[in-house]
């Protein structure tokens, strides 16, 4: 159990409710149930506007915690994550054209290779277990990515995505940015979900084709077939007077701080006013 203060957990609790409803739909559908598609959830109990209690996800670790050491261990010849981010930050700060940013990004990819596939060879020594866990990881990423896209989840950096060291399933945490609130941040989030080179490396040789694509299609088809059910539930939640669906100053500062820490290892605080979200 984790007691958390200085943070509003009501939105996290709402997202867990939505995930549980989606899991019920996935279980009742013979195709998605046969493919073992579901979203890992955890308990969230808001105690007030600024505090609450969360279930501790035992046996998990942030993907970023593993990648931080794995890149140094398996690719010592590559440039450091800080150096890679610094190059992209320089392009952003100097307002380089998009074409130049793409050239810099592609150049970085050549000297900063993915290493997340080593997570599976480290933790699952038996070939059968290795294959099963890699498949479970692929299905988990596909399902959570599609549901996250529909729910407009933002702030999906590698410290907000845990991986279960036993089952290899991913668990998303910290839902302070949802329902496309990320689009009104100082640096708008326009990507639908996280699918970086390291995330894809865990899928195996087929990459995004094969199991990942099929699971994405099945999940998205299920959500489309049950859109009336989901819309009804979401409309009730979004119209609840107990919830204020805005990007709070705290959430905005947290997102900005996370990006700054990931890029420069420093601390920052964004104290700008809260921005309203108009999309329901």
TrEMBL record:
GO molecular function, one term: protein serine/threonine kinase activity
CDD domains cross-referenced by the UniProt entry: PIKKc_ATM (cd05171)
Pfam families associated with the record: PI3_PI4_kinase (PF00454)
Record keywords, A-Z: Kinase, Transferase
GO BP annotations listed: DNA repair
SMART domains found in the cross-reference section: PI3Kc (SM00146)
Name listed for the protein in its UniProt record: Ataxia telangiectasia mutated
